[in-house]
Amino acid sequence: MEEVIMRPIKSLLAISLAATLASTAQAAENLTAETGPPGGSIHLAMSHLGEVAAEKDIANMQVADSQTLTNSVQNVAEGKTDLAGSPYILPFLLSKGRGPYSKLGAEKGAELASNLRALYPYTIGVFALYAYDTKRLKGWGDLKGKTIYNGPPRGAALSNARSIIQLATGLKDGSGYKGLQVNWGQAVKTISDGSSDAMVLPVLFPDNRITQALASGNMTVWSVPKEKFESAPFQKYLKAPGSAPFTLEVANATLGAGVTVKSEDATFRGLATIGGDIVNKSMSFDLAKALTKAHIDTLDRLKAKAPFAKHAGYGIVDAVKSGMCGANPLKYHAGAAAAWEEAGYKIDDCAKE
Questions:
Q1: pLDDT digits over 53-68, tens only?
Q2: For 96-143, what is each residue's pLDDT tens digit?
């Protein structure tokens, strides 16, 4: 009689435990995420992660796009948002309490920045000189006295463009040439209306802004001259937080019909602005690992989603090319580092927490 009673009880316990374990295994996290506007590598990475995380029952992500990433980074550091896209210059500025974070001060900024961890990197854009062929520009050596659209009124892009022009030509904004600053929302109109002689802006291969502006005429894009690129001052600048060297065979520097890419050899060279999707250090090891693994496992799908994605730095975790280490205080989340290493990638010790 005892045996007859106990068997159903054991069976019920086993069923209950199995159901609990299955429920736990399939329970997806609810996460909030902030990213940039559609059409760029930042938005593509986060929107793709949201898609594959849902497919794999890892997380249900509420993604808000077209956000001010300066604020998004602080939101993640304060635990108000789970994930955000970030140019890597922002964690550095936050850690110093500088630039957009100057009101926080160095102490508070450093405290917040210490909460940030990376999942994976990407290339946001590569700075290049370009102009309509009708402007008859001869290249970097022909910028003296010209009007150059070099970015929005403030921010890292403008600072980078000014520095690159000075390193490549010795010219300064306001004395050697006239800088024109216009917000990104008006970029295509500004390029197309001919109000500047040339542009020094970040591009992707192919580039959405250039593609749209080609309606107004053919263009030429110039690589940073090899001698300048390899000089000590330029190489030092390439190591600044959020920056990395970028090279690509000219044959693969696809920018569309109507665009000529010029370099003194077969290699296009430029400064890349690097960023990545970041989380708070409080995210669990397992969740950070699962999200990163989902990104790694679907890199081919991600790269197939947009023409520019092939050269947007997805899957490149080399410390130099991905802008990690050095002055960049950002480290990979331990779970993310584990996912990369289990997939066969090398994560440098300086990039680990």
A1: 999 999 999 999 989 8
A2: 999 889 999 999 999 999 999 999 999 999 999 999 999 999 999 999
pTM for the structure as a whole: 0.86
Contact at 8 Å (CB) between 61 and 83? Answer: yes
Tell me the domains of the chain and their CATH numbers: 29-123+274-351 (3.40.190.10), 125-273 (3.40.190.10)
> By the 8 A CB rule, do 64 and 47 touch?
no
Question: In the chain, which ranges are E strands?
Answer: 29-34, 59-64, 83-87, 116-132, 147-149, 178-180, 198-203, 219-222, 243-249, 259-262, 267-280, 331-332
Instruction: Assign 27 a pLDDT band (cuts: 50, 70, 90).
Output: low
Cβ proximity of 46 and 81 under 8 Å: no
Burial class (CB in 10 A: 0-12, 13-18, 19+), 10: exposed
DSSP helix/strand/coil, 196: coil
